[in-house]
Amino acid sequence: MTRSYDIKDLNLAEQGRKRMDWAEQEMPVLRLIKERFERERPLAGIRVSACLHVTSETGNLMRTLAAGGADVVLCASNPLSTQDDVAAALVAYEEIPVYAIKGESNEVYYQHIKAALDHNPQITMDDGADLVTGVLQERKDLIRSMIGSTEETTTGVIRLKAMAADGVLPFPVIAVNDSDTKHLFDNRYGTGQSTLDGLIRATNILLAGKTFVVAGYGWCSRGIAERARGLGANVIVTEIDPVKALEAVMDGFRVMPMEQAAPMADFIVTATGNKHVIDSNTFAVLKNGAVIANSGHFNVEINIPALEALSVDKRQPRPFVDQYVLNDGRTINLLGEGRLINLASAEGHPSAVMDMSFANQALASEYLLKNQGKLSVGVHALPEDLDREIAALKLRAMGVTIDVLTPEQEAYLRSWQEGT
Q1: What is the rounded distance in angstroms from the CA atom of residue 244 to the CA atom of residue 68?
Q2: How many whole angstroms separate alpha carbon 41 and alpha carbon 200?
Q3: For the whole model, what pTM was predicted?
Q4: Are 54 and 112 in contact (CB under 8 A)?
Q5: pLDDT tens-digit series, residues 199-245
């Protein structure tokens, strides 16, 4: 292979291939799309640069895009989220250039972003909007040839909508995260399970009986809260939105401000998409031995520089656990350097839920191409009929059938004359 790449070790490729094959067994919807893409080649010759978590599930998405004819390059969307064996497998067996190394520095991370943009993409595929940001800040020369972009996560959609509001977003973007078959399942069930998986792998602390604070009550946070309660934790939710706070109360959770919750917390997990959700005032009241972690996209949710400023010592008792010793003798345990813990110390979302998310990504790239020149500049949702198609395929793969409206029922729903 002559094309460049930057990964940890090409010798890991065989293990990575096995992991991707294992994940594919739980991804029947994406597999069906891949089979159609192989027949129809809808992305033939299109240059795609993807900035995603380099996992076994992502590997199967890359296989699907390549099957559709796309010329794909992949870089990591987080310094700690790469599975190095998958990166190697994509290079060795799929001949897809990958720029991703687990634990890479911030400097190397942004070098990899630049390498993905050097591919001169016509479509970018983001998880956090770093590629689009790179285009706007450093590679405006790419805009003329850009068809559009797709965005995987809540944080990225927030950034993109801010770009659109500022009038600087120059092409259409499909907010994959806004699809029902993404955020209702990936964010809730995927983040819920994988976050708890990451916490347990990092600490091996029993959650039953512990006080567990979840910052936010969006789809990701409510998944975390539900799973923590299922493991026996006493869950407290903090929120800034009165409607979401009310939902949390009605779902049976205690709701209070962070300053009241923090002194009771054995665990605090953030998943808000905002910065400094855990700040100096939180560190000041945390109990000795408290565990803090983040499951939002960026590590700014925890004010790590403030924690370091308050500390007199730092040690690592376990992988992915940084234990800070404060000047009053208390210890605070930060997991995964404040990066998304479900990928830092675990394997990210289960394949079955990423099946729908990445089906959205594959169909979104095809939709952008089919509608080139027709979509307005801005952030768009994937059409509802494609969302329903993904749900129907998933149900079929699960062996689940549902009712169909009769002609009489369809006529009734279209009419207004018939009443009681």
Answers
A1: 40
A2: 43
A3: 0.92
A4: no
A5: 999 999 999 999 999 999 999 999 999 999 999 999 999 999 999 99
